[in-house]
Amino acid sequence: MHALVHDPNAPMQLALHEAPDPAPRPGQALVEIAAISFNYGEIAYRSPRTRPGYVSGWDAAGVVVRPAEDGSGPPAGTRVVTFGWGGAWARLRAVDTAELAVVPDAVDLGLAAALPVAGVTALQACRRLGSVLGRRVLVTGASGGVGRYAVQLAALAGAHVVASVGSPARAEGLRELGAAEIIGGPTKLTAPVYGVIDNVGGAQLAEAFYRLEDDGVVQAIGKASGESTTIDFEHSRVTSARGRLENFNITTPLGADLGFLLHLLEQGRLDAQIGWRGPWTRAAEAAEGLLARRILGKAVLDVTAVTA
C-alpha cells in the first residue's frame, strides 16, 4: 500500500512510499482510508528517534473493507472515522473497533477525519470543567484545531466564551462559532473566568491561572508556545480566588465521544473548521502551514491515487 512515511531527507520529513499492509488483530477492523487530518502535536513533536519508513498519524476516516474477526464493530462497507496513536497516514489502517465510530451518510469523510484528537480533546476538556452554564470560560489558542472545537462546545454548553488569539487575523470566524469576546491573551481579560481551556502553556497559562474565579479550574492541554510554565502561587493567593490547575490527558477509547461529535456535525450544531484541504501529495505544504500558524483550524488531506 502507499503511505505517508517518515523520511528524514524529504520536505517536512514526509514522503509517499510503499509500506507493508497492516495485519489486523482479532479486535481490529481493516479500513480503506479516504481522508486524514493533521494535528499540530504530531507534526511539531515528532521524535528524532523515529525510524525511516514509519507510518505515523492519529486521525483518519474511510470504509471498512474487512470487519473485525471477533465480531465486534461494523460490517464491511461501513463508513467510519478512526483513531489510534499511529498508522493513520496510509491507504489501509487496522484499528481497534472501540476506537471508531460510524459516519452518518450526510457527513463527508473529510469532515469526520478532522474530529478525533482535536474534537474529542475539546469535548473531554469541557466536561472536566463541569457545568459552565452562564459562566465565563477562556479558551487560549482559540484559533487552532482544539481551540475552535472548544469555543463551539463551551458555547453549546451555555458558557460565555472568551477566545484568546495571537493576532486579529487568527480571530477570523470565532464569533460565528460562539465566542462572546475575543482578546489578545489572558492579560486582556476584563473580569475573572470560571474555566480555562489552555492550548498555549508558558506565560499565558500562568496568567490565566491568576485570573480564576473562586473554585475555578484550568485544563492545561497544550504547549503551543514552546515555553515552560512557572506559576507563583504566592502571587496567585494575593491576586485571585481559590482555583485548581489540571494537566489534561485524553481518555481512550474514543468511539463513544466520536459518535457524539458526529451527531452534532450531522445536525449542523458543530463545524469541523477545516482551514486547509488538499490531496495527500501536498502533505508537506499542509504540515508547514500548520507549524507556521497560517492554517485556521484543521488541515485535512484526501487520500488519492498515487501515480508513478
Could you explain how this protein is built, in words?
This protein has 308 residues and is α/β, with parallel strands linked by helices. It contains 9 helices and 15 strands. It has helices at residues 40-44, 109-113, 116-129, 145-156, 174-177, 202-209, 233-239, 255-267, 283-291, and strands at 2-6, 14-18, 28-38, 59-66, 79-83, 92-96, 100-102, 136-140, 160-164, 179-183, 193-198, 212-220, 243-247, 274-279, 298-302. The strands form 3 sheets. Strands 3, 4, 5, 6, 7, 14 and 15 form a 7-stranded mixed β-sheet that branches. It has a 6-stranded parallel β-sheet with strand order 10-9-8-11-12-13, with helices on both faces. Helix 3 (116-129) packs across helix 4. The longest helix is centred in the middle third of the chain and has 14 residues, at 116-129. The radius of gyration is 20 Å and the shape is globular. The model has no long low-confidence stretch (mean pLDDT 96).
Strand content: 25-35%
Number of helices: 9
Helix amount, in percent? 25-40%
Arithmetic mean pLDDT: 96
Contiguous uncertain segments of 5+ residues? none
Computed CA radius of gyration, to the nearest angstrom: 20 Å
Class by alpha and beta content: alpha/beta
Q: How does the major sheet shape up?
A: 7 strands, mixed
What is the overall silhouette? globular
Total beta-strand segments: 15
- SSE pattern, N- to C-terminal: EEEHEEEEHHEHEHEEHEHEHEHE
Compute the separation of the termini in Å: 13 Å
Structure summary:
With 308 residues, the protein is α/β, with parallel strands linked by helices. Helix content is 25%, strand content 29%.
